[in-house]
What we know:
Elements: H1 8-23, H2 30-37, H3 41-47, H4 51-70, H5 77-90, H6 92-109, H7 113-128, H8 133-157, H9 161-175
Helix pairs in contact: 1-2, 1-4, 2-3, 4-6, 4-7, 5-6, 5-7, 5-9, 6-8, 7-8, 8-9
Amino acid sequence: MPRPASDKRERLTEAAITLARAHGLEATTLAAIATEAGVAQGSVYYYFKTKADVAQAVADGVAESLASARSTLGPEPTDALVGFLGAYVDDAAAICAHGSLLATASAGTGSDRAHREAIDWLAERFGDLGFAAEAARARAVHLLAGIEGGAALAHALNDLSPLEREATHLGRWVANASA
């Protein structure tokens, strides 16, 4: 008889993301993931054989979360781009860790999904503003690098003002964008 479907993998992934955001991926142990998810430690090993499997799950989970957030930003490109920046500030506690969390998770897995999807989405919005594909992509990379740099600095200094200033600056840059 087949086993019933379980949400254990999702709970374990969410626990891994929560712990990695709070303590960093390197400090996140399989035992801590099991405790956070409320499952037996052996369950973790069933779903995640190695720390690289955990890193991949964290990177994929964060990518899905960011994609979901982008889907709520609306169709008007300038508003969507400014909304993207605002999401970084609004979710600052988690986002401040995203840059280093994604970089760490990506380094362990080769997964750059979250960054590539964000750049593609941003480039589409700049394309909607009339920029040619190459210029739209260059602007997308600039915007993502700027906001993630602000987030990384805010996290390192334990001070949100670098992130807030960068989001404000990039928001003005987007508002004044013309192809």
